[in-house]
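Handout, tutorial session.
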Amino acid sequence: MKHLVIIGLVIPEPASTAAGHRMMQLMQLFSEADYKITFLTASNNIEFSEKIEVQKIEINNESFDEKIRNLNPAVVLFDRYVTEEQFGWRVSENCPDAAKIMDTEDLHFLREARRKAFVERRNLEKSDLVNDIFLREIASILRCDLALIISQFEYHLLVDDFKINPDTLFYIPFLTENFEKSKIPFEDRKHFVSIGNFLHEPNWQTVLKLKPIWKAIKKKLPEAELHIYGAYAGQKVWELHNEKDGFLVKGRANSVEDIFDKAKVLLAPIPFGAGLKGKLWESMKLGLPNVTSSVGAEAMHENLPWNGFIEDIEEAFVDKAIELYQDERIWNQAQENGYKIIDSLFRKELFAGSFINKVLEIENNLENHRTENYLSKILQHHQLNSTKYMSRWIEEKNKK
């Protein structure tokens, strides 16, 4: 049995974060391919964590070296670039024949560039992309044997704009298995819903954008309510709760499916971000039409009709939200559009086999693969003269 070691910044929280759901899907793919899986983390997050067996590791500590040698993995998967920065060089030194894979989750440098442009109230420029996170994240991608990309937009950004070798990238989105169409009809649903964990800055900014949007919707639909769900809702979130206005902060959702079965429309005016939006993938899968922004819908539907509306202008967003809420014919068509998107673009069987085949191909031809990926060798050398020795310095300092 082959051995996969996953090094995670955090323990997956699939009920709270799209990233957690993504990691559990990757683990399932490897498990189905008969890999033994060991999950290593320095994190203590346990409140909403998935109940998986984890082994604790320490950052900047040589104890990791012995642990990874004893585990002797065929494949090491890093859950994001900062994890690769911290542990990648140790893996290379102690398990040089292990294939190194990084799940980018989404491109953090793209998210940061868009955040900065949003805060500065201006359009994104290409120069914004080449930020400090870009330098670190691209270096991590190049040091690995394979980087997993969740969005086709991001895949083409890396290949076309930044000339990353496509042989070192693999596009794999959220995966859907055996979903059933919702049996809850239009007439049995009511109210609007918003969802997203509040540790993720775009979700907080989305709720702030919803305040004026909801005020305009409420004028036209006085009986409607907006139910806002999300884990890690701090005081600033709860202070937005307003019973009179029907702007109701509900906190963490115990079951997304139960909430989406009752609601009529999902509102997601996402102002910035990257990757794929888990809430929109789930809304399509569970049969809940939505209104979102162009950033929200990015890379999620190719040329297929959206399951609702995509609007960036506030007034148009309000109008479409009301139209979707009131018009049963439009709502039913939007729901069907979502099912078609899921069936056409996100079915597990479209990606599972080719993904494992790609991993096996790299494992079985690792030396040749690395010879072709010569930039990796250059960056390994760079890293061994910077990140490594910074870590060594901290390690020695901690001994005193």
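The second record follows below. Compare its token runs with those of the first.
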Amino acid sequence: MTRTFIVGIAVLMLGACDGSSIVSGPPPKADATPNPMEAKIDALPPALQQMTMFRAIQDGNFTCQKIVQMKKRTPTVGKAIWDAECEDQGRYVIELQPDGIFWVSGVPQPKKRF
């Protein structure tokens, strides 16, 4: 499975960073408090949440004309995860990293040739 590092468009949409410092230590636990960026994404209207995930998919060089179904999964190792299905039936998993970057992986559909 190929993972593409994606700079979250949500970072640009939601404004500047909150000024918190980087802290080294053990990785977050599954029951840790949510990532502040996750909370901001959750606060967006559904249309903007879909646009954020659409941009993450597009920025990962995957094909997607329109997201037709999107669902947030239970966090894994403290990371927010969304499933998205595109109009062309491409299916993607979008994982929000602690630093606000999206990792996108999935089963893209081949580009149509005319």
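Points raised in discussion: Confidence is low (pLDDT under 50) at residues 1-21.
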